[in-house]
């Protein structure tokens, strides 16, 4: 579990996007700034190997480079809000998609669609979904990756906000999955909404809120 440093700047960004009166363009812009920080932090959990280069002045620099292939996987629809920022930091990265929705009758998460790289079992995966509440969708998405052969320890879950209940559910089932988040909320209310919360992230980001 990795929580971004709770700096004054990060709190200021959260203040803007949590404001119910925030304009959509501000919500999108400042959300993307936080998402960029999350992705940069998530990349730190990927494996690196030593790599030496020569500088313009003819000196050697003992550096690092990624030692394995990576890919992103977004949980449709809210997770797609993180794709553009991922492409900014990793321009050639492959991005898969998983669509999971809660069944209206059983109230359980149900897989409707997935499209993933054929060789995903050989890659480290940045799984992207801004909200981790009860953990149902995240657990279902992780199960899809495991069934495709991705080792549990190769999954980094990039998440904007979460609650203790969601963290507990995910860590209990998949303790090797790494979670990177920018805020741990107080709790879920009786309707499974996070408090103090941010509303429906996908609706606010894509402009479909009512």
Automatic annotation (TrEMBL):
This is Uracil phosphoribosyltransferase. Keywords: Allosteric enzyme, Glycosyltransferase, GTP-binding, Nucleotide-binding, Transferase. The keyword Zinc does not apply. The keyword Nuclease does not apply. One of its GO terms (molecular function) is uracil phosphoribosyltransferase activity. Belongs to the UPRTase family. Its cofactor is Mg(2+). The lineage of its organism: Bacteria, Pseudomonadati, Myxococcota, Myxococcia, Myxococcales. Catalyzes the conversion of uracil and 5-phospho-alpha-D-ribose 1-diphosphate (PRPP) to UMP and diphosphate.
């Amino acid at each position: 579990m990795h929580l971004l440093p709770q700096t004054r700047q990060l709190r200021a960004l959260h203040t803007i996007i949590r404001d119910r009166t925030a304009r959509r363009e501000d919500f999108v812009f400042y959300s993307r700034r936080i998402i960029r920080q999350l992705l940069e932090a998530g990349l730190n959990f990927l494996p690196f190997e030593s790599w030496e280069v020569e500088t313009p002045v003819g000196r050697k620099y003992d550096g690092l480079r990624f030692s394995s292939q990576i890919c992103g996987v977004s949980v449709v629809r809210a997770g797609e809000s993180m794709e553009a920022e991922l492409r900014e930091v990793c321009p050639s990265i492959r991005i898969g998609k998983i669509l999971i929705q809660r069944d209206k009758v059983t109230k359980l998460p149900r897989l409707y669609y997935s499209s993933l790289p054929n060789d995903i079992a050989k890659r480290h995966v940045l799984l992207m979904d801004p909200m981790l509440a009860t953990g149902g969708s995240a657990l279902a998405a992780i199960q899809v990756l495991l069934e495709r052969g991705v080792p549990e320890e190769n999954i980094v879950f990039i998440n904007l906000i979460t609650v203790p209940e969601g963290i507990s559910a995910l860590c209990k089932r998949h303790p090797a999955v790494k979670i990177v988040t920018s805020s741990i909320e107080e709790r879920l209310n009786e309707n499974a909404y996070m408090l103090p919360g941010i509303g429906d992230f996908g609706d606010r980001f894509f402009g479909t809120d009512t």
